[in-house]
Amino acid sequence: MTALLREVAAAARSQAVSSALTIAMVAGMCAAVLLTTGRAVAAEQAVLAQVDAAGTRSIVVRASEEAGLTVALLDRLRGVEGIEAAAGFGPIVDARNAAIAGAPPVAVRPAYGVIADRPMYAPQHPAGRTALASDAAIAAFGLRDGSGGITTDHGEDVVVVGGMTVPEHLRFLEPLVVIPSSSPAAPAGDHPEEPLAMLVVLARSPQEVAVVEAVVRSLLTDAEQGTVTVETSAELAEVRAAVNGELRTYGRGTVLAILAVSTVLVAANLLALVIMRRRDFGRRRALGATRGLIVALIMGQVAVLAVAGAVVGTSAAVVGLAAAGHPLPDVGFATAVGAAGVLVAVAAAVVPAVVASRRDPLHELRVP
C-alpha cells in the first residue's frame, strides 16, 4: 500500500498540467454546487426556520366555561397518531408576589399533560400548592432566587418551586406560570373532570397538522357551538411544504446538471492523460504490472487529486458566500458536496483506467 501511494504521488507530480486540471475541475464543481444549490439550501433553511418559528405544527383550542371541556380530553388524545405533545390549561387566575406590596399580577394556569417533555406533575409542598414559572414569569414576580411564595386573587397560597423551559409553540403564553397536577398518574391524573380553558396540541410534522386538527375537532362535537374556537397553522404548513418542495426540486436539478458536466470533463481529461502516458503504462505492463495495479494507480491518483480539489473548491465557496453576506449551508451539506465531488471524479476515472489496463504492452512500446 505504501509503495502504491508513493507511485500515485509521483504520477501526480509528473503530470502537473493534468493534475492541475483535475483539481480545478473538482474544485469548480464543488464551488458551483455550493454557490448555487448550497446557497438555495441555506436560504431554504432560513425561510423554513422563520415559518416554523410561527408555529406551523401547533393547534390551539380555546374554550369558554360553557363548553364543558375537561381534562379527560387529554386522555382521549393519548396515542393518537401524528401528535407529538399535548398540554391542557385550566382557567386563568391572577397571582402576585406575596412578599411585595402592590406587586403587578401575573396569570397563573393549572396545567395538565406534557410541556417540553416534562409531565405536569409536582408533589405537594408543605406551604401549599406548587407552581413552575418561566424565566419571564420569575422576573415579573420579582423572585430573585427563582422560587418563592405567591398569592392568587382567590386567596390561595402557591409556592414557585422552580423554573421551566417554555417550548416554541407555547411562547405565546409568556410569562407562563403553571400549577401542575399533584398526581403522577396519567395526564388527567385524578382530575378528569376539571375544566380546560385551553388545549395546545403539537403535530409531529407540518404535513400532519390537517389530520391532527380533524381528530381534535372530532372530539369537540359535544361542545356547544360558539363556545370553542380552534386555531391552526394549516395554511403555514402548506406554505412550508410548497417552499420546501420548490427549492428541493430546483436544487436537485442543478446538482445533477453540474455533476453530469463535471463527470464528462474529468473523464475527457483522464482519457487524454491515458493517451499521453500510454508508453509508461506499456512499460509497466511489460515489467509485470497487472491490470489491477494499473487501474488502482489511476484511480488512486484521481482520488488524491479529487480530495485536494474538493477541499479547495468547498473552502473557496464558503469564504465567498461569507464575504458576500449570503447564508451558509450547514457543515453536513458542504461535506456531502465535497464527498460527491470525489466520488464523481473517481467514477469518471473508471473507464480511462480500464482502457489503460487493457492496452497491449508490446504494441504500446512500439509506438514512437
Summarize the structure.
The protein has helices at 2-14, 16-53, 72-77, 135-141, 209-218, 234-276, 278-286, 291-324, 331-348, 350-357, 361-366; strands at residues 58-63, 83-89, 93-97, 106-115, 118-119, 129-133, 148-152, 157-163, 177-180, 198-203, 228-232. The protein is α+β, with helices and mostly antiparallel strands and 368 residues long. Strands 3-4-9-6-8-7 form a six-stranded mixed barrel.
Describe the 3D structure:
Strand 4 and strand 5 (118-119) form a beta hairpin. Strands 3-4-9-6-8-7 form a six-stranded mixed β-barrel. It has eleven helices and eleven strands. The longest helix has 43 residues, at 234-276. It has helices at 2-14, 16-53, 72-77, 135-141, 209-218, 234-276, 278-286, 291-324, 331-348, 350-357, 361-366, and strands spanning 58-63, 83-89, 93-97, 106-115, 118-119, 129-133, 148-152, 157-163, 177-180, 198-203, 228-232. It folds into two domains: 2-50 and 240-366, no CATH class; 58-232, no CATH class. The model is unreliable at 184-190 (pLDDT under 50). It has 368 residues and is an alpha+beta fold.
